[in-house]
Amino acid sequence: MKLQTAGIHHITAFVQDAQRNADFYAGILGLRLVKKTINFDAPEVYHLYFGNEAGAPGTIITFFPSPVGRKGRIGSGQVGVTVYAIPVGSLSFWEERLNAYDIPVTKIQRIGETYLSLADYDGLRVELVEREEGPQSTWSFGGVPVEHAIKGFGGAVLYSAAPASTVDTLVHTLGFERVADEDGYVRLRSEGPLGNVVDIKIDPLPLGAGGSGTVHHIAWRAKDDAEQLEWQDFVASRGFHPTPVQDRQYFNAIYFRESGGILFEIATDPPGFANDEEPDKLGQKLMLPSWYEPHRAAIEGNLAPFTVRELEVKRQ
Fold first, then answer.
1. pLDDT single digits (tens) 169-187
2. Where is the VOC domain (predicted)?
3. pTM assigned to the model
4. From CA 159, how far away is CA 9, in angstroms rounded?
């Protein structure tokens, strides 16, 4: 059986302030905070997950907010743009909404589609594009009605230091299909309904530098633990060096760096974010893995409180 990922599982980025992060992704974009936990490797830092009503694979963007973190620089070796899919007919709603919150927006064209291009408060690049495919979100927050709500990822734009090698990895290792070469990009497509379109910029940019306002890694979907172990062996057979399986509580993960410098993860779809909270209470409490629970008081004392809140429109 040929292995083929269904597309993006999640994308993880660095930001500075948890409150501003929640204000942008929940307050303005209308996503749901589905998990409030910590960076398991650095428990003094939040790990925040935003997605659709259930935090389904293909909808999840995650953040490490660190007020003392350095400012990053977007460039080669990174995910350059996170692309969100919105329902057909929703572009004007989002253009008006973003303008009302004083978020600068530019309309751009790429491979026959119109995108709204913008940046979050830390400078992370975001695009919105209308897509027919993908289930409709049922989550409504902050004045975003379900008929215009973000469905999940439309995909991502990768800035590779070795674009041809990155294309080769996505096609021959992860199972994407090459579907277009236009406008200075190679477009690849996977089989999933969300997070299934990846554009790779053909001309490399100067190397990026990790830090606030940049993406740390992009994760691809594995159906379950058994398939993930198949991926681990296959990735190694292709000359990469995958890590051992890491327990991330809501999925299991392996990591490897592809030849263009981008950190790839392969993450399992299960068990999901209702693993330790009821579905209607996702994101309301700081959740800790069992090995950190004895240190809860100290951990909470080191984390700045924030709230998911509705924002006032800045201009009509």
1. 999 999 999 999 999 999 9
2. 7-131, 152-269
3. 0.97
4. 19
